[in-house]
Design brief:
binds iron/sulfur cluster, about 10% helix, alpha+beta, Alpha-Beta Plaits, two-stranded antiparallel sheet, about 80 residues, 4 strands
């Protein structure tokens, strides 16, 4: 089963360079063209499900604007 993840973009740091958009292997990041950050950039955003939490976007971001969260594994339940 594929890992699930999600990202949070810090709008105070994102400058809309789109490096994360190009780097995401799942193609689930885009720039939000309808929104501007306080600094006047179109920020990166998650656009659909499918994030695996691979962290590539956070690694390539030159401004450390992305935090990646991974879904915690559910504890296994023993069959009786
Ligand atoms: S963690 Fe990986 S899959 Fe998720 S948005 Fe970032 S690059 Fe894409
Ligand atoms: S790589 Fe970083 S600064 Fe560039 S668009 Fe993505 S989150 Fe914003």
């Amino acid at each position: 089963m594929a890992l699930k993840g999600t990202i949070e973009v810090n709008e105070m740091h994102c400058k809309g360079c789109a490096l994360c958009v190009d780097a995401c292997p799942q193609n689930v990041i885009a720039l939000d063209m309808e929104h501007l950050t306080p600094k006047g950039y179109h920020p990166a955003m998650l656009i659909s499900e499918g994030c695996t939490g691979c962290v590539i976007c956070a690694v390539v971001c030159p401004d450390a604007a992305i935090t990646v969260y991974r879904e915690a594994k559910k504890p296994r339940v023993k069959a009786a």
